[in-house]
Amino acid sequence: MISWLAGEQWRLEVFKTHGKIYEASASQMFGVPIEKIKKGNPEYELRQRGKVAELALGYQGGAGALIQMGALEKGLTEEELPDIVQRWRNSNRRIVDLWHTIQNCAINCIKTGQTQVMQKNIYFSIENGNLVITLPSRRQLFYIKPQLEINQFGSESLSYVGQNQTTKKWERIPTYGGKLTENLVQAIARDLLSNGLKNLVDNGYRALFHIHDEIISEIPKNDTRFNLENAIKLMCKVPDWAEGLPLNADGFISKYYKKE
Known about the structure:
By secondary structure, this protein is α+β, with helices and mostly antiparallel strands. It folds into three domains: 2-91, no CATH class; 95-186, no CATH class; 188-242, no CATH class. Helices cover 41% and strands 19% of the residues. The strands form two sheets. It has a six-stranded antiparallel β-sheet with strand order 1-2-3-4-5-6, covered by helices on one side. It has a two-stranded antiparallel ribbon with strand order 7-8. A hairpin with a 6-residue loop joins strand 5 and strand 6. The chain is globular and about 65 Å long. It starts with a helix and ends in a 25-residue tail after the last helix.
């Protein structure tokens, strides 16, 4: 999703073909042919670095994010982490640009009160004093009472009023480009799941519930009209607003719900 939003073409090609993003990321970061990053080769240890970078750095995280993602437990040292951060960012310049584009749109919108437009038909506007981000699906995210301040580094920082996820109290919450990027990525991914649910229901599937990125549907036994292959096809029907997004799914049939 973040690759599509940013237009990071090499990543999109990975998802359209072999899908080995950890190996491909390590290849980009360390300048090693991806064919060499396989079990049995000394270059295979680079896969671990690509994996932890992919899991930790997409939303503007740094060395601390790598540590939280278990980098030290996976055999990396703290001294190596800044280099991994920089290599990942150098290999994903469009994603880095996306963080700054989103932050600048939010700040300029709050400053001027004027609508800001970025790629994928994403709009930033002010409505009744709130910052509103309109997603490609036209669904909207609201940030209550946004505010700009000068932080300790002398640059502008952004905050809004929301619920503290730890204390559950409403208070002013700081945010930044990477965090806003995460909000957009997760929200748009949720819109895609909603689209898949609607496609299934419109075609007669009985969707019981969904968990994160999974849809659970109860189907009549031995009714060939309802099968896994068709369900996957319906889930992967890309809506007009997500043109160019590589979308795939997998699943299984069971008499009861379980984690595969």
